Amino acid sequence: MRSMIAIEEIPAGDTHRVAEAMLVLRPRWKSAADLVQLIDDKLRPVGYRLVAAFRDDKASAVSVAGFREMTSLAWGHYLYIDDVSTLPSERGVGHADALMTWLRQEARRLDCGGLHLDSGVNADRAPAHRLYMKHKLWISAHHFERSL
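Above: the chain's sequence. Below: its structure in token form.
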């Protein structure tokens, strides 16, 4: 029998608790220490926040989402979801679903007009796309980029 899912926001100083789950999605940062330093030193000061799903022991997150409250000319006031990542062994049991529900509630609490996120289009992203569509997000734009 699976244990209960606990959702909690992660303050600075506790970022190490989500590093393993986040590195699944963002392996370019290579180590937990590098990831924690980037999040706490560069991203948090400009509004990046973390929320995570835990099993009973609450030592390390099994799923994590990184997000920011933003305002733009295109979309007004909104919650932007940068990252949603779940340990492979924990996928398909509702962790990311619970995080998406929490994020929607937080966006409403902040009086945001919407939720936004970008997602890759590789075939392995199909489960993530199903999750987003289940939460009534739709594909509204193309994202363009250029490496420099």
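Residues 95-109 form the longest helix (15 residues).
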